[in-house]
Write a structure and sequence with these properties.
Layout lengths: L1 E4 L10 E4 L12 E3 L2 H12 L2 E4 L2 H10 L6 E4 H11 L17 H4 L5 H15 L3 H23 L1 E2 L2 H12 L10 H14 L8 H10 L9 H4 L6 H18 L1 H7 E2 L2 E2 L3 E2 L9 E2 L9 H4 L9 E7 L2 H10 L2 H6 L6 H8 L4 H13 L5 H12 L1 H15 L19 H4 L2 H34 L7 E6 L2 E6 L2 H20 L8 E6 L10
Parallel strand pairs: 4-5
Antiparallel strand pairs: 1-2, 2-3, 6-8, 7-8, 9-10, 11-13, 11-14, 12-13
């Protein structure tokens, strides 16, 4: 069902045109005009549960969510165009419209003609009908845009009072005006006293100059460099950095901006990274530091089920390459243990370094010799990524399992490009992009199960990050069962009847923090 919103003609309603199409995108009925988009979508969704086709979820769905309307499926034209354009060698950027429920975004979306939308959809269907895997990728990506909008609208349970107490305990009372918090001011004074002169601890140049005046030739102010310096100012500088980061990134201004009604409401950007991974635009949704996680508190009568996939990329490599011995290793709870037994005399640490080295192209130090050992025992898996690396070095484009293309090299690459860097990128791209696809298929299936579960206690998705999902639920056993089933479904969907396992580490918690976050 193609839907095209019309600009509001006064009041709070917005009209729309809809038309039913066949699988090829051709209309099979007359275009219908509706006075109210939300009312029309609600009626059609309830009766038929169609796959909605719209310009972008970011520009349409927030309006529906604010009206209390949700849909099961969609085809996001903007997301699809980004993927197909990259495959055609003309990289396009994701939509500039973030998934954001705040008022005003929908009204600012440009009007579009329904015939234009139909033509674009028909052309996309023509391309997708020729490639089953690519069609699956688009379906998963579109489902991801719905999940992103819903999570941004619903928000992640977050105690504003707990976060204020954290800020006050670490930084001191909320400062007035432009003054720094009391504790940052105190540490600044201690740093100045340690150097015997006034300076700005946030200035790299001033810190390096202060060290030189003390006969210390520091090369930078990076953490690992400072830790090698024997000077009383070093722990103070590191403390100042931590306090300043908390204040600037997740301080009171962040709390006022992004937490409303005890819900953290970030802006997710699905597929913003070339590998298909998500990013966030505002709020730092994908970078919730440990210090904040104790403020992510479940509602009364609810709990969180936190699930993350361990050793995801090595397992993806095993499934993609079909290396018999690597597949067998990936059938265990700990993939590195059988790899260590087969190639490194049981040394798990060496096995882990070797596997990660082959994924990321590490060839320095011990990695080179370990890679040689790994190649002898798992030649098919190693050759799989090395072929991708060699293709990248030749300036070629490589693809994920479902057909996402990596960006082509920059113009002039063959004459002055960094061949090795390109090879390292394509080596990892084929695996990391496929891992993102697997995780997205898990997310899409989990969303479907949670929203259609007749029990209604399974809960809702509240967080997604690369290889981790969080469900806010009144029934943690049921939520965990849905997660496990979604993992199995996604694995079969991508890799068929494989022996590779993707074990999920499941934890049931009242807060997002685990027992180690306070250490």
């Amino acid at each position: 069902m193609v839907v095209v919103p019309h600009p509001a003609a006064g009041g709070d309603t917005r009209g729309a045109s809809t038309v039913e199409t066949d699988d090829a995108g051709a209309p099979v009925a007359q275009v219908r005009r509706h006075r109210d988009l939300a009312v029309a979508v609600a009626e059609i969704e309830s009766a038929h549960h169609p796959r909605w086709v719209w310009t972008s979820t970011a520009s349409v769905y927030p309006h529906l969510l604010r009206a209390g309307v949700r849909v099961q499926r969609c085809h996001d034209l903007a997301t699809t165009a980004t993927i197909t354009s990259m495959r055609a060698g003309t990289p396009g950027l994701p939509s500039d419209e973030p998934v954001d429920e705040r008022p005003g975004l929908f009204d600012a979306a440009p009007a579009v003609d329904i015939d234009t939308v139909l033509a674009q959809f028909a052309e996309q269907r023509r391309v997708l009908s020729e490639d089953r895997r690519l069609d699956l990728l688009i379906a998963a990506e579109s489902a991801g845009t719905l999940a992103a909008a819903e999570m941004g609208f619903d928000g992640l349970p977050f105690s504003a009072d707990a976060h204020r107490r954290l800020l006050e305990s670490v930084l001191g009372p909320r400062p007035a005006g432009y003054e720094p918090p009391r504790r940052i001011a105190e540490v600044t004074a201690e740093i100045c006293a340690a150097f015997g002169r006034p300076l700005n601890p946030a200035s790299h140049a001033e810190i390096l100059d202060a060290f030189r005046r003390e006969g210390i030739d520091a090369t930078s102010t990076r953490k690992h460099v400072l830790k090698e310096i024997d000077h009383p100012a070093v722990p103070l500088l590191l403390r100042h950095r931590d306090l300043s980061k908390l204040y600037s990134t997740n301080g009171w201004h962040w709390l006022d901006t992004w937490v409303h009604g005890n819900r953290f409401r970030p802006v997710y950007v699905p597929g913003a990274v070339v590998s298909g991974r998500w990013a966030s635009r505002g709020g730092g949704a994908l970078q919730i530091p440990k210090s904040l996680r104790s403020s992510v508190i479940a509602d009364p009568g609810h709990t969180f089920v936190v699930a993350d996939a361990g050793q995801l990329e090595p397992r993806i490599l095993a499934a993609m390459s079909g290396d018999r011995r690597m597949v067998a290793a990936a059938g265990a709870d700990d993939l590195y243990a059988p790899v260590a037994a087969a190639a490194f005399n049981g040394d798990r640490a060496k096995a882990k370094v070797a596997v990660l080295g082959v994924l990321y192209g590490a060839t320095s130090g011990d990695a080179r010799s370990l890679l040689t050992v790994l190649r002898n025992s798992f030649p098919v898996a190693v050759d799989f990524v090395e072929r991708a690396a060699r293709a990248g070095e030749r300036g070629e484009v490589v693809y994920s399992w479902l057909g996402r293309a990596c960006p082509p090299p920059e113009p002039g690459f063959h004459s002055h490009g960094d061949v090795r860097a390109r090879g390292r990128f394509t080596r990892n791209f084929v695996v990391q992009a496929t891992a993102a696809e697997w995780a997205l298929c898990v997310l899409a299936e989990l969303r479907r199960r949670l929203t259609t579960d007749p029990d209604r206690t399974a809960g809702e998705l509240v967080f997604f990050q690369h290889d981790e999902v969080v469900v806010h639920t009144r029934n943690p056993d049921l939520a965990a069962a849905h997660i496990e089933a979604s993992v199995q479904s996604a694995t079969r969907l991508l890799f068929g009847d494989t022996a590779v396992r993707f074990p999920m580490k499941l934890a049931v918690r009242d807060t997002y923090a685990d027992e180690t976050d306070g250490e």
